[in-house]
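Example protein was shown:

_____
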Amino acid sequence: MSNLSILTPSEQQTFDHPPILPVEIQSVCFSINSSLEKAINALKTPVNKVGFLLQYAYFKACKRFFVINRFTQDQIIHAATLLNIGVQELDLASYKKKIPFEHQKKILKLLDYKPFNHKVTAWFKEEMLRWVEQQIEPKQIFIQTLSLPQQHKIEVPSYHRLAEMITSAFTESENGLLIKIHNSLSPEGKRLLDTLLMEERDFTSQTTLNQLKTINQSLKPKAIQASLITFKNIKDYFLKLKSTVDILKLSPHSIIYYSTWVQKAKLSQIKQFPDEDKRYLHLLAFLQHQFYLRQDYFVDVMLKCVQSSKNAVAKKLQESEILTRTERRKAVHYLSQSHHHQRRLIKEIDKIVKFTVLTDKEKIEAIQALLDTYALQQSEAEKQKIGLYEKSLDSLVKDENYFNHLEKLSIPLQRRMAQVITALEFHEDSSDKSLLLAIAYLRENEGKITQQVPLRFLSKEEQEALWDKDNKFRISLYKILLFTHCVDAIKSGTLNLSCSYRYKAIQDYLVDDKTWKNHRTQLIESAGLESFSNCQKSLENLKQILEEKYQLVNQRFIERRNPYLSVDEQGNIHVTTPAIDKDDTEYTAALLEQAGYVPILQILSDVERITQFTQCFKHHSIKHVKQRPCTEVYFAGLIGLGCNIGVRKMAQISLGIKENTLLNAVNWYFNLKNLQAANQQLVILINRLNLPTIFLADPEKTHTVSDGKKINVRVESLMASFSFKYFGRDKGVSVYTFTDERQALFHSLVMSSSEREAAYVIDGLLQNEVVKSSIHSTDTHGFTETLFAATHFLEIAFAPRIKKVAKQHIYAFSSPKTFEKLGYKILPSRTINQKLIKKYWDDILRFMVTIKLKSATASQLFKRLSSYAKENPLYQALKEFGRIIKSIFILTYFDDVKLRKRIEKQLSRIELANRFSGTIFFANHSELNQATREEQEIVTACKVLIQNAIVLWNYLYLSQLLANCGNNQERQDMVEMIRNCSVIVWRHINLHGEYDFKRQAGNNTPFDMERILALKIGQTTD
């Protein structure tokens, strides 16, 4: 097989040819020290000396060697001049055979670098295979591979050698899987897989495979039952083929890659595989993916349905409480009065007993007279009323109303969940045994139960409630209690699925025990966490920083040098921030409107000519080159999805675009990975421009920010949640977007509107390859103590907005009394538990290595970890460590008004970006029409790509205006005006109307990139 086309021919040429070095770098690389001079003087001929110096200098610059005949005459003359050798003496044609290779060995030794030998090749191959298993795109593997030599001082090989190794890794990985299938898949297994491709003999003419591709998102009982039938069919296939699946050991990335191909492909394409083992590999992955996906789907169904029932019970109890409040007051008052009479009677009896003048007989007679009088006062009606009141209050104590309401909701819930819970495959070793026993009983008896059911998972009070007044077992109550306990256990991590993407035990996501024990040091090094390997040293450094912060903040506060800080009588801290000037858009809007009303198609065309971002749209099949659609098809897809018009409608209202072509392109080329790569191309160019730097508060640091925007979902979707505040009676999701000071949107994701945003912050910071955040801000609800801990390990300063600071938010290594004795006014609430952190430090490192190496997403880990709450020591240790980092930040926040203003500035910018988002996503009432997270994220990524195209176009247009300014003063005045504005302006963009793709845009861009990139702009100061 020929090598994969990883780089374009021009990129290959650039990589394998010596670059033109800037003067300052050239002077450093060609500088001749004593050891280099000695090595050169040992050579005999002028040609060898010049060749040696050229190879040395360019290796020093690029960490790789170049073929000598690729050096330009200018480079050769420069080297010869430095060595005082006449160019006429040189004939580089004689610098060949073994001589250059011998020189390379000497150069490596001089610079203390390792050669790219067989040992290094084996290590590279191991890393490449790991990336191939994650189905990372070849070009990305190529880029990641280049970082390995730089980290370990190893020679960088040629493009051809790297391409050959990457191609070999893909081939070896897949061939290994095919051999496993060939050796393990039985004839019966093959026949079973072939049945997936057979057409049903009914009027639908559908194959079994096509019927398995869609998951109904409805929570209606009939829809759930239909999905359950499909799931049982998939489960039957999966369990029969599980022995082969277990032998394959596909990574989640590989499962999704091969399965997605089947999902997108037509039946004819699947049948056309020349190698049947390859067809079976794709089908096995599809079944495994569907089994995992549907298990997660049914857990989502359970979570939604049980939560809905809980909400209904809470509402009923609230209504019942309102209705019976008067009666309960009467009961309490009446019983209180009765109790008062009884106490008075007891006191009178006590007096008589202690009265020494009376004989025992007289005492008894006196007591009897008292009791007779009390009995006459208590009529039969009074006794009945007291009995009823006592019974009423007793039922409240025993939660009878709660259990009664719960029982009434059991039947509707059983219709949805009774068979679901028994169909799921739970992981026995990491799940609650008492619940597994109850589920097994339900499964074995097909839902028909008696009072002999397992009860260990229930509390004593719940067990008592299972029998009614007539001592009859309440079957419906038992079932709904089982459902609620199962859901609570799934949330808390005590009931886990064995085959799942999202509901496995936390330890199943982390680097496995064996790998961690055997390769701990290498893994920590690969994750870039070497500086944290020593827990004691890390804590000592943080202790010093924290105590210095306490001293500084208190000193400035006591000396009244911080007018924005105050402490109330309870010790709570209050901090104010001067109002910031929000970014204006009028000036930039007026400048941009000089271009007229610019169609969105022209924006995309102009940006494409400069960035060629559509080259990032790769066909789903990594190893096979497909005929690409024309550029206009990608534009149509982006507008159709990103503006919410719809792909089919986009084809119908456009000229020059065929519907089938557009649908096929969106199907095979529009995935999240491609869209993110295309978006990064735009962000890269924004970062290269000089104009965006005027918005940087600190040129050495990148301040990023993230925030969510609620969007209605029109179709039935398990992702969508109710929120009357945002959606009224409808459902919706939250689109979480990341941007930086340059106002480029570098990442986006979709999550349920009921989820906490903090779990997704790390995903956005790690899953982009362009923007490396130094400081990251969120709104108040976007942070947790565990997030402070994680960002510290990523070496990102987490800086959320804090609206209210209670005393209990800050901690210290020393006790609060120690600080109080020093006369401090800003005091910690308690001491950090260092023992807990030290005890689980290794587990914390393992957790962070898993995130840094992207073995699992941060959101997956955080959601599973936080569900364990107090039961999980890793969660508690990570949270305790996060309290140190949070305390340092809060103290900095108290004392640094500029930081607070920067945070506010960034948050106001992302609010503007969210308003901009609503303008782009204009069609169909700005409601999502997609049901699954994947579909919703693709739409969101298209929208963000359009937003960034407009931001980039705005920057280019403004840069062109600046480049064309007549004098420096005029340019500087314009820069100062733009500095106080925003480039997120869209008034000049035409998003509506007819889309004509037949009318080709001119080949000439309106932007002079040479002048724009050469534009020099003074740096801002904050």
User: Anything to note?
Assistant: The first helix runs from residue 9 to 16. The two ends are 57 Å apart (CA to CA). The mean pLDDT is 88. Residues 183-306 form one domain.
